[in-house]
Amino acid sequence: MGDVDPPPETYLRVTDPGRFDLLHDAAEVLLDELTERYTVERRETTEPFEGRAGDPQVRIVRLIPRSPVAGPLAVAFTDFPGLAVRLGRWHELALPVCGCDACDEDPKQLVDDLHREIYAHVEGGLWEGVRRRLSGSRWETRLIGPDFSQGRSGQLSGRQARAARREGFAAAVRWAPWNRRAADPTEPPPLY
Predict the structure, then answer these.
(1) Following DSSP, what letter does each residue of 13-60 receive, concatenated?
(2) Domain extent for 157
(3) What Pfam family is a match, any one (predicted)?
(4) Single residue among 122, 138, 164 that ends a domain in this structure
């Protein structure tokens, strides 16, 4: 549409949510590949989406590296259909971010984003920490990949900040790369 704003009613409309089914399929394949390639424990559960009673139940797949210095990964498969991805402790990614007709997010681009961010994390590109400020403590993340760098932050309650500092997040933590399983000489190199 160029520089013209979409009509207001398109912000309230989702004409074809099924176009995002591609995200579930891509996440399934990616999680299987990561489970086969790296030394991780795979846990699958069904639980409330945001962890609160009454929230819709969703399937969540967690990959937990066997090395304690490598960061975990969790993928929630939402009913929209979409994905909620958590890298490490705080770095989150929602795919799609919105899904409305006005935003018109491209599912194929979202799959590329999913791969790019997850592989940046798996290769050791995620830093996380807690920063004390006069207004309170904040969590901060920085994810760096071959062609991007992004940061996020959010407010922590006093209790959350104390717990995070006890867990070693008082200074920035760089999650280590995931350990690969023993190489199979017939396996082609990864495509990332």
Answers:
(1) --S-GGGGHHHHHHHHHHHHHHHHHB-EEEEEEEEETTSSTTSPEEEE
(2) 126-174
(3) DUF6226
(4) 122
